[in-house]
Design goal:
The complex is a heterodimer of chains A (253) and B (258). In chain A, 38% of the residues lie in helices and 24% in strands. Chain A is of the alpha/beta class and 253 residues long. Chain A has a 6-stranded mixed beta sheet, sandwiched between helices. Chain A has a 4-stranded antiparallel beta sheet with strand order 2-1-4-5, covered by helices on one side. By secondary structure, chain B is mainly alpha-helical. Chain B is elongated and about 80 Å long. The N and C termini of chain B lie far apart (70 Å). The mean pLDDT of chain B is 89. The chains are: A alpha/beta (253), B mainly alpha (258). Bound molecules: adenosine-5'-triphosphate and magnesium ion (MG). The site of adenosine-5'-triphosphate has 11 residues of chain A, from strand 2 and helix 1.
Chain lengths: 253, 258
């Protein structure tokens, strides 16, 4: 990707506190269009909070987040959420709606598309994630992997420019992880900008354009996956990687 | 004059049957109107009370919203914390003496029962909303829905399912408790019974009939509500499109068949 592009997401000096607890401090991050950034780091390091600040599910205490140069807090909420989609660890499919309606609701209410058009687009994305046959199924009738694929279709149906993933495979049984990761890979091939929080180091290594390591609310180190995984510069990065790679037995250097 | 219990029952039904029926009709009318209107009030109040107060919003907006929520809380506390029989007196005579508003007794009944039920419903609905996983609201927000849209399209449909028994219960309570409205001369079944009993001073026999009427009303209502609950719990199967084992399964997908 051309990194001389002006960034699609630009985070400057972001701070976030919960009460007295500082969860993010001085985060700077630029994400150019089309780039896939994987966020890694120990539990409690603030990865989810960072994602949630980007689409304003959390309100930052200081700093600025820009989308195409525009301060996100100044953007109309509906537009912001349509442009920056989110996929959750627990899927969070609307429990009262079937798979198709899950993908239709936002299009009609937020983008004001007609029903016919929304249904058409929903069908297209359900097909892309291989879930069209289950369009009439309610969430409680689907497996975890299927739910997550519908959740991805729901996000895609809003024509987002950026998709945020918060540990999209952590709640899945091992045999379902790949079906979701391979969907995410096809999105990368389609040129979608993505920020992905993940514990899947092998995935981060081969799918990310850039890997960012966070610890204790700070952005500690970032780089190309090859460089970061094989030759981490920071001690904390090295300690984290050796711990998690040993745990996962991925056999990286 | 009859000299047996059943003799009296017979005579009373002959003489006052239509009065009893009329009273039962008014009782049901008040219960239905009060429960439906109370449910709507409860939904609205619960939606308003769950509006998130964003720390990023301007100060005047936060103060306004807080104040507004406090008013709603006071409403709920006051109407749950005082007897409906007293509320009826205060509303009816308050309107008459201070607002020069001479409501018909029936209108006052609708008003009192609706507002009273609304206070209970608001708490029931709020409980229902809290029982829905909070990921649902987050996902709705993340898709771009407003608070109102997330509530009406995602949260409340799920909440209502779990609170339906409690809502039905309010209906049954209203059938019984509308009897207190006799203090403002609403012609519901208890009021009618009192008038009927006065003529022959046969209180036991008249109120025996009244009790049967109330029981039939609440029993029938309860059964009907059970059926409705069953209906609303929805289908639990779906057809896989293109399925080979189900001859009903459509093969091709077209947006128009929705
Ligand atoms: N709503 C909240 N209120 C208070 N504290 C919170 C809240 N959300 C998160 N935190 C705290 O913020 C810190 C960072 O949490 P966060 O969920 O961002 O971490 P994470 O890196 O995503 O961890 P994990 O890998 O376990 O998901 C944690 O200490 C957490 O307890
Ligand atoms: Mg997290």
């Amino acid at each position: 990707m051309d990194s001389s592009n002006s960034p699609i997401i630009e985070i400057l000096g972001l701070d976030k506190k919960f009460g007295r607890n500082t969860v993010l401090s001085g985060i700077d991050l630029h994400v150019p269009k089309g780039q896939v950034v994987c966020l890694i780091g120990p539990s409690g390091s603030g990865k989810s909070t960072l994602l949630r600040c980007i689409n304003l599910l959390e309100t930052p205490d200081a700093g600025i987040i820009r989308f195409h140069g525009q301060d996100t807090t100044q953007m109309p909420k509906g537009l912001l959420h349509a442009k920056i989609g989110m996929v959750f660890q627990q899927f969070n499919l609307f429990g009262n709606l079937d798979a198709l309606e899950n993908c239709v609701l936002g299009q009609m209410k937020v983008l004001r598309r007609s029903r016919i058009q929304s249904v058409g687009i929903a069908g297209k994305y359900l097909e892309r994630v291989g879930m069209l046959p289950y369009r009439d199924a309610r969430p409680d009738q689907l497996s975890g992997g299927q739910k997550q694929r519908v959740a991805i279709a729901r996000a895609l149906a809003m024509d987002p420019e950026v998709l945020l993933f918060d540990e999209p495979t952590s709640a899945l049984d091992p045999e379902m992880v790949d079906e979701v990761l391979s969907v995410i890979r096809t999105l990368k091939d389609g040129g979608l900008t993505m920020i992905i929080v993940t514990h899947e180091m092998a995935f981060a290594r081969d799918a990310a354009d850039r890997v960012v390591f966070m610890d204790a609310g700070q952005l500690v180190e970032e780089g190309k996956p090859e460089a970061l995984f094989t030759n981490p510069k920071n001690d904390r990065t090295r300690a984290f990687l050796s711990r998690s790679l040993r745990g996962h037995g991925t056999g990286l250097a | 004059m009859p000299n047996t219990f059943f003799g009296w029952i017979h005579l009373l039904i002959d003489e006052y049957g239509s009065l009893f029926l009329q009273g039962a009709g008014v009782t049901m009318l008040i219960a239905v109107v009060g429960t439906v209107a109370g449910f709507v009030i409860g939904l609205l109040v619960a939606i308003l009370r769950t509006i998130p107060i964003k720390p990023s919003a301007p100060a005047w907006q936060r103060i306004l919203l807080r104040g507004f929520k406090t008013v709603l809380t006071v409403y709920i506390e006051v109407f749950r914390g005082t007897p409906m029989i007293v509320q009826a007196m205060v509303v009816y005579y308050g309107a008459l003496q201070y607002l020069q508003l001479d409501m018909s007794a029936l209108l006052a009944a609708f008003l009192v029962v609706s507002v009273n039920t609304g206070a209970y419903m608001a708490e029931i609905v709020r409980g229902g909303i809290l029982s829905v996983d909070k990921g649902q609201k987050e996902a709705a927000t993340a898709v771009g829905l407003t608070h109102w849209q997330s509530m009406t399209n995602v949260i409340l449909p799920q909440a209502i399912r779990s609170i339906l028994p409690a809502v039905g219960n309010e209906f049954v309570v209203n059938i019984k408790d509308s009897s207190v409205l006799n203090v403002i001369s609403v012609t519901e079944v208890y009021f009618m019974s009192k008038s009927a009993a006065g003529t022959y001073l046969k209180y036991f026999e008249v109120f025996f009939i009244t009790a049967v009427i109330y029981f039939v009303l609440t029993f029938t209502t309860t059964r009907i509500l059970r059926l409705v609950e069953k209906k609303l719990s929805g289908k639990d199967s779906y057809t896989v499109y293109g399925s080979q084992s189900d001859s009903n399964a459509p093969i091709r997908y077209s947006p128009e068949d929705r």
